Amino acid sequence: MPPFTELTTVEETLNHPSYPTAIFNLTPTRQGLQPVAEGRGGPFNISWEIHGNGPTKMILIMGLGSLKSAWQRQTLYFGHELGDKYSVLVMDNRGMGDSDKPIMRYSTSEMARDVLEVLEHLGWVNLSDPVRQVHVTGISLGGMISQELALLIPDSISSLNLICTAAAIENTTTFTEHYLNRIHMLLPKSLEASIRTAAGQLFPHSWLAGPDDTVLPDLIKNIPGVGPPRPKQGATVQAVPREYGRFNSRFQRFVAEEMHKRRDKERFQRAPFFLQLIAAGWHHKSPKQLKEMGDRVGRERIWVIHGTEDGMITPPHGQKLIAHVEPARGDFIEGMGHAPIVERWEWFNEVLEERMAIGEKLDGRA
């Protein structure tokens, strides 16, 4: 493992002048709280936002323990730079962010039904008269939820994009390595150690050490809904820089974004995180179900992507998913980690745009 502590520490990051600007200030076109799960242990509220007002409807489904702001590079691009073309729906899954956090059994199938109820509320899905108009993208746990959603509403999906996910979490290492990894996961860690472990599982070590080169809203002029950095709760306006700033490394930017989440005790809580983790661990789609998904959605509409350096969901999971789904495009990317939406955001946005254009063309809208 590289000497991340030589790159930065949590304390140094919190004191960095760019820390208040790590989360972009992107104003939604619409937002709300939708009651879901009536008769399924609810009702409870799911927080959603739509960015942009374009005719192409896309939903981005986030992964384990993350907030909808983790899509900010995609939300900025599709919902603001190209907001006249796209309407981007982001939401906090049950247990995270501004959504309710019920203490109950979570499953990917139930979380997919939460998503479906939001889509029905917005009028993006009509089960009695389905129209292929929703572009579904899910990463990690969000990719598992997307598989369940695709089986629920295959005739409403224009494109399906499964990012660094799995049909089921399996042991792909030796018994000893698997056993030691499980023990390591359960051991208590300091904040510094926890951040370093997360970074090493999500991203290639060489990438983390590189310069912070993410997109900054300040560099994009006259884009609707993109404002200057805003203060967090309890902060003074004077404490927030007027412009977005860069960090000393990509690792430090990761630490900053992660600490914005972890310091928010209302929006990120330990018990719901573990409930989401259990949902991911119990997710299972058989080869027969994956074939059915491919048949009913249409393989020409499906993109599956995985990286050889994914330390969160190991590469054999991606290979198996591609083999069983047989998507029109299956990318197994050398040297890529678990989060291309951050690590390779420019390329990812370009390919996602291409995949949605294929769906639109198949549906006669292009």
TrEMBL record:
InterPro entries: AB_hydrolase, AB_hydrolase_1, AB_hydrolase_fold. Residues 60-340 form the AB hydrolase-1 domain. It comes from Coniochaeta pulveracea. This is AB hydrolase-1 domain-containing protein.
